[in-house]
Amino acid sequence: MFSRSEMPIAGENQEIMDLVDPSAPLPSWFTEEDLSAYGDLYQKSGFQTPLQVPYRSFAENVGSPQQGVDDPKVEVPALLIMGEEDYVFKFPRMEEYLKSGEVKTYVPNLEIVYLPQGCHFVHEQFPDKVNQLILDFLTRNKY
C-alpha cells in the first residue's frame, strides 16, 4: 500500500490502516520476515507515535527555544534521499517546494537525491545505494 506512488488517504472515521488489503502481495523488496519484524516492534509500542509524527503534526508549531519562529532554519549540512515515485509529491505544492529549491530557504545546506523508481521507502528498496549515499555525504561533511 505505501510502496505505490498514489497517496493513501483515509476517509472520515477511518484510520490509514483501514485501507490495507491483507490479500495484496508484498513488494519484492519487503519480505514476510521484514513484515514480522516490524509487526513485533509495533506490537510492543503501537502505531500512534510512528503515524502521528510527522503525518498528523503538519500544522504543529515546532521550534527550538534558541530559535524563534521568525528564523526556522536548519544550518547544518543535511541530506534528503527520496524516490521519484514517492507519494509525498502528491501533497499540495510539495514537488514544487522541493524541486524548485524553495526548501533551501529553511535548510540552506540541503542536498537532495532523487532515486528513479523509488517510492516512499527507498531505504528498503535500495539499501546499498542509500547506505552509500549516506556514507558519501558524511565523508564530504566531516568536521
Short description:
The protein has 143 residues and is an alpha+beta fold. The protein has helices spanning 32-45, 48-52, 94-99, 122-125, 127-140, and strands at 78-83, 110-115.
Enumerate how many helices there are, as a single number: 5
What is the rounded distance between the termini?
A: 40 Å
- Classification by helices and strands: alpha+beta
Strand content: 5-15%
Most strands sheet: 2 strands, parallel
Q: What this model shows, in words?
A:
This protein is of the alpha+beta class. Helix content is 30%, strand content 8%. It contains five helices and two strands, in the order ααβαβαα. The protein has helices spanning 32-45, 48-52, 94-99, 122-125, 127-140, and strands at 78-83, 110-115. The chain has a two-stranded parallel ribbon with strand order 1-2. The radius of gyration is 17 Å and the shape is globular.
Any descriptors?
alpha+beta, 143 residues, 2 strands, 5 helices
Task: Please write out the topology.
Elements: H1 32-45, H2 48-52, E1 78-83, H3 94-99, E2 110-115, H4 122-125, H5 127-140
